[in-house]
Amino acid sequence: MEFAYVHENVAAIRLSIEAACAKAGRDPADVRVIAVTKTAPPDIVLNTGCCLRQGCG
Question: DSSP letter string over 13-51?
Answer without folding.
Answer: HHHHHHHHHHHHT--GGG-------SS--HHHHHHHHHH
